[in-house]
Design goal:
- The protein is α/β, with parallel strands linked by helices.
- The protein has 14 helices and 13 strands.
- It starts with 18 loop residues before the first helix and ends with a helix.
Amino acid sequence: MKFHDYLFDLPTYQAGKPLEEVMASYHIPPENIIKLGSNENPFGVAPSAKKAIIEYANLASVYPDDSYSDIKKSLANKYDVKSDNIIIGSGSDQIIEFCVHSICDSAKTILMAQYTFAMYEIYAKQCNANIIKTTSFFHDLDSMIDMYHRHKPDIIFICTPNNPLGEALKRVDLIEFLNKISTDCLVILDCAYMEYCAYKDNDFAIYPKDIVEFPNVIYLGTFSKIYGLGGMRIGYGIANDNIISLLHKLRPPFNVTTLSLRAANASLQDIDFISKTLQNNFTQMQRYYVFADEYGLEIIESYGNFVTFLLHDKLNSTTISSFLLKQGIVVRDLSSYGLNAMRITIGTPSQNDFLLSKMAGILISYKDSF
């Protein structure tokens, strides 16, 4: 048996710490763990989605309607596109996988930002594709277009708002960029946090309607973030009919569960839950900006449901993250990205109270030691 040689050097994605691991490692009961490392909704599942899961639990034994017509119709109505423009995946990650596997091999090249979602690189390496990254810290479209002209990539990834940093691109700038890209190159717009971005500043909002007429652009969305369905694994891609019909050839049958579909469809209608989530996110986010100013930390303006602290050389993100973990607080240490930084999901008021008080204690002790 012989596997592809390049698979042996393929990195494994480092997911946020699960509750079970924290419980086992530190003997902390689940009710005392604050999980702010995976950008989940701190309020949990939308009430309407929870109701749908309970109501339709008896259908767990039944294969889903593989046309996914109900959820496609709901998304089509929400975004003013056609159902034929939509593909449903087991998380938007699966749509990324379809896109990369449909195009890439060792002769193909993928362009992405220097610091962005780690799975882009992992999917690229699964196909032994060449990877080109910009040298700018944030998404810089000027830098990206320059590298596009020099390297002629087959795929470009753009994450807006960008995970793990939080910055976003203006709609007018992005559309101008897309118009400069040849139809030979697929542009993947990962918009997992777009609901937050659109709420904060509509100038930075990207809608599927903006891109669906492009023959080489796909918009990705998810139910894992604002809709609180990370554990149900459901996302979607929206693009012109030709892209979608080709990606469907890679989609396995029944790739999304019956209950996931019911929960997602219900959550789309739960306006009160969405509004509550958005209001809490940006009200509580202000506390982190104030905290950063008070303790002399650099914080990136965020358009998502998280903030990222960039630490100076006297602070270590791994050390601080580990200390918080022992207190039952899970945050995302970004050292795996080559950054001395921490990404923290915006929690509920009480969760943020606890985290910020522990962070303050750490920073005061560090200050006293120098």
